[in-house]
Design a protein that fits this description.
Length: 584
């Protein structure tokens, strides 16, 4: 009778298994299509495993030539052979502490206990283990092995020491976790490594777009159909953890993704993380004689136009590997604004406009995070006292940036700086490290009266094919820079050209005077001012607004203020300076 009951029980069990397996198969093939029954989390994909699935056997991990043996909350690593016996190190977690000991066929050594694992620098534990190993290994051999074991444990820490305690979560927190899984399955979401912005892929645009708390809250309402509290939005945003750098090679256009290294195109792809999009088509066959003619008219030298193309092409590349800062200089209406507006139109969704003087302000660098270019359409003439941030940005150094209502961020800013102005601001830094970074295009032509078309900028920006022609040629010009680098003028030529505009009194002083070792060499203030003025007028350079600029200039050259009696009268002037013998 008992046997009959057992057989009936077995048959019933087999039927239940068949039914359960059938249900699992149906549910898997339908991919949980009953969204309405699942409420807010409808459509959430889940892995369903049969009770009879056999887990795949893990591949053996090797260390020091032998298989690693994983223990419960620990690991056993081979050290060496000694007296026909294999010696191993056992390292285990014991509550909040760690214990280590040597083991061989002779048995186990005494334990060495520590509050820190071997994966971090632990001199005390290392010394204990060296002492316990003195019967079968010397100090150097043991120390080397312990360091290697520590590196291995550091790499495999999460596999060796499992997190065992259950985190008790409220029903609300469990719901947020389920919602996170649902969103993460349905949408492509990445954390930008440069800015730590949360970015969601926009299929209609083919790029990722940044979401702050307010924008993400609106996104949640659209996805779920419900409102969320601020703390709930923050918690959800904090769960996403896939961090990527923006792809350095691909640029999104209206019609495709384009690789700026190979010029190959492809369809938009969420696997390529890019946030920058050019609001034009990639069109290698584009042509516009009108656009070509008008933009070339701005430059008095074809070489300067080629340099401008190279600059714009270089802006498409992520970062600033050549450590350059670009300036368009020239007096009056000479096309600077037009050229800057062309750049702005191309990089409209990845540009900022932070003056160089603001780099030192508390939140001055925040707008540059994640941008490709910082455009300064009208360089202010205020003196730049400190250039450390300029050199750090152009040099690709790590910078800690204070952000309003956010934690400070340490990152490498990838933006390049392009400025335009009638003259440079005065820069107190006179080092080679700064001047070697600067590329200057001097625009000599002016367009006044009848020669000036007040609507030219509008015409060129609305000439879509002309803009596409310009973009293609700019990227082609950049290919040469990528292969050969920038043709650098000498440090003296760059600096000289810059200070002609920013500090003409200093430029004149360096041409007119030389510093001596003798305090007997003396020039009066009047001699200084008159000599510099005559030079500036002759060379059509700006006359300083006040006399302090003349005095500051000769002091920068090395002169020292002093007095001298001339005909019983004390005359103010400068010592250790005399006039050069000019050859012109």
């Amino acid at each position: 009778m008992q046997k009959s009951k057992l057989n009936n029980k077995t048959e019933l069990s087999n039927k239940n298994i068949l039914v359960r397996n059938k249900n699992i198969s149906n549910e898997t093939s339908d991919k949980i299509s009953e969204r309405g029954r699942m409420g807010v989390f409808g459509g959430l994909k889940k892995e369903i495993k049969s009770d009879f699935d056999v887990p795949e056997k893990p591949k053996p991990v090797m260390f020091n030539g032998k298989n690693v043996e994983y223990l419960q909350n620990g690991v056993k690593l081979f050290f060496k052979e000694h007296d026909s016996s294999s010696v191993y190190l056992v390292h285990k977690r014991n509550g909040s502490n760690y214990k280590s000991y040597w083991v061989s066929k002779e048995g186990e050594s005494r334990e060495a206990n520590s509050k820190k694992p071997l994966s971090v620098t632990n001199t005390q534990l290392e010394n204990k283990l060296i002492d316990l190993a003195k019967d079968f290994a010397n100090k150097e051999e043991t120390s080397k092995f312990i360091n290697q074991a520590g590196q291995f444990i550091k790499q495999k820490y999460s596999s060796i020491f499992k997190f065992e305690k259950d985190i008790k979560r409220s029903e609300k927190e469990q719901a947020l976790l389920e919602l996170y899984k649902h969103i993460n399955t349905k949408y492509n979401i990445i954390i930008d490594k440069e800015s730590y912005d949360l970015c969601i892929y926009d299929e209609s645009e083919g790029i990722y777009k940044a979401y702050d708390e307010k924008k993400f809250s609106r996104f949640l309402k659209k996805v779920v159909g419900k409102e969320f509290f601020v703390d709930e939005v923050k918690k959800l945003m904090g769960l996403f953890n896939e961090i990527k750098e923006e792809d350095p090679n691909h640029v999104a256009f209206n019609n495709c993704l384009m690789n700026i290294e190979t010029l190959e195109t492809r369809k938009f792809d969420p696997n390529i993380f890019t946030r920058f999009k050019v609001p034009y088509n990639w069109n290698p066959s584009a042509d516009s004689p009108f656009f070509k003619e008008k933009i070339c008219e701005i430059f008095d030298d074809p070489g300067k136009f080629q340099t401008f193309l190279q600059i714009v092409g270089y802006l498409f590349a992520k970062g600033n590997p050549h450590n350059k800062l670009f300036l368009l200089m020239g007096k009056g209406a000479n096309g600077k604004s037009l050229l800057m507006q062309i750049i702005s139109a191309i990089f409209i969704n990845s540009s900022a406009a932070v003056p160089l003087q603001d780099f030192q302000k508390d939140f001055g660098l925040q707008p540059l995070i994640g941008k490709r270019v910082n455009l300064l359409s009208d360089l202010p003439i205020a003196t730049i006292e400190e250039t450390g941030q300029i050199k750090a940005i152009t040099g690709g150094d790590d910078i800690t940036i204070n952000r309003k209502f956010k934690d400070p961020l340490t990152t490498k800013l990838k933006c390049k700086i392009v400025g335009a102005g009638n003259r440079l601001p005065k820069i107190m830094d006179d080092s080679y490290a700064l001047w070697r970074r600067i590329v200057i295009i001097k625009l000599e032509k002016t367009f006044d009266g009848d020669s000036r078309d007040t609507k030219l900028t509008e015409k060129l920006l609305n000439d879509t094919e002309g803009m596409e022609w310009f973009i293609f040629n700019a990227i082609q010009a950049y290919k040469k820079i990528r292969e050969t680098g920038w043709t650098e003028d000498t440090y003296r030529e760059i600096r000289e050209e810059a200070i002609k505009n920013s500090d003409p009194a200093l430029y004149a002083s360096e041409q007119l005077f030389e510093v001596t070792d003798s305090p007997d060499n003396f020039l009066t203030r009047k001699e200084i001012v008159d000599s510099i003025n005559d030079f500036l007028i002759e060379h059509d350079l700006r006359i300083p607004a006040n006399k302090s600029e003349y005095y500051d200039a000769v002091k920068k050259c090395g002169a020292k203020e002093g007095q001298k009696r001339i005909l019983e009268e004390k005359i103010h002037g400068f010592r250790y300076i005399e006039k050069r013998e000019l050859g012109w």
